[in-house]
Amino acid sequence: MKLKNYLILLAIGIIWGSQFIFQEIALTSFSPIWIGAARAVIGAITLILICKSMGLKGNNNQWFLFSSIGLLDATIPFVIMPWAQQNLSSSIAALLMGTLPFYVLLLAPFFITNAKITIGNLISVMIGFSGLLILFYPELSSRTDTINILSSLGIIVAAICFAIALLLLNQVRNEHPIIVARNILSMAAIQLIVIAFVSTPIKIQSISHAGMLALLYLGVICAGIVYYLYMVSIKNAGAVFTSMTNYIVPTAGVIIGATMSNDIILLNTWLALAVILSALFMNQLLSINEQQS
After folding, report:
1. Distance (Å, rounded) from C-alpha 74 to C-alpha 165?
2. Domain count for the chain
3. Average pLDDT for residues 16-45, to the nearest whole number?
4. Structural domain of residue 226, as residue ranges?
């Protein structure tokens, strides 16, 4: 077990957990589709500049693969999720997105040679999902309205797209993680800009300074930097372990949101975090034991 794997995954969870506050600010100036497009563009530019400064150049031209991953990992989810979340609470959406590690686990044998559904991965994924249930139990137990089936299916489709994109990344060979992140984000940026221009006209007069700064943070940190960390995690710890960021992100979002607004962080939030962290630890521990046996 490498401490580095846990630190990278926690960093990803914290960064993506912080995006909710900045996205709320950005929504006062931009539509959801333009936020997604601008995030991808700013993130791609950030990674391009980093690659230039480090003197990194790509070793292959798998642009069709990069474009496909960008489509599944960013373009389709960025379009589907804002639409679906109009009729779903954040807790339901987070729980449905929390099924992502299950899809990674189930689909891995179809995309990765010799991949198996191991007991260790299955147990850790189930424990991690139970952490999400603990986190959102107070809200879920107080709900009396029905859940929109069509919107729920939309979130599930987005989760499956994320899962397939994660697994396709294993087909990228002999490439630096930051190059992979740059190429995929660049392809997604092109796709999203086209969709944004076609679907939603931008209103220049409604853009505020706060909205612009929030969008800059979302692009540089929540797209560019975190996407690089994401690629490093996949390379070092595997797709299943990395997909468990979906358990950390909502927990980190709740803690960061409560801290920013000076609210009391409830006991179930800390309990959920402890359960999720134990799931991550168990994932790596059982994986090592299974490899040695």
Report:
1. 9
2. 1
3. 87
4. 3-292
Return d(Cα 223, Cα 228) in angstroms, integer: 9
- pTM for the structure as a whole: 0.82
End-to-end Cα spacing for the chain: 16
241-272 pLDDT tens trace = 888 888 888 888 888 877 877 778 778 888 98
Q: What is the C-alpha separation between 121 and 271, in angstroms, rounded?
A: 21
Place of tokens 């979340």: 85
Return d(Cα 129, Cα 118) in angstroms, integer: 17
Element at 51 (helix H, strand E)? helix 32-54
Burial grade of 219 (CB within 10 A; 0-12, 13-18, 19 or more): buried
Q: Which residue has the tokens 């929540």?
A: 222
Tell me the pLDDT tens digit for each residue of 160-183. 999 999 999 888 878 889 999 999
Give the span between the Cα atoms of 221 and 248, in whole angstroms. 17
How far apart CA 117 and CA 210 sit, in angstroms, is: 46
Burial of 90 (C-beta count, 10 Å sphere; 0-12/13-18/19+): middle
Is residue 236 packed enough to be buried (19+ CB in 10 Å), middle (13-18) or exposed (0-12)? middle
- Name the nearest CA neighbour of 283 among 240, 236, 232, 229: 240
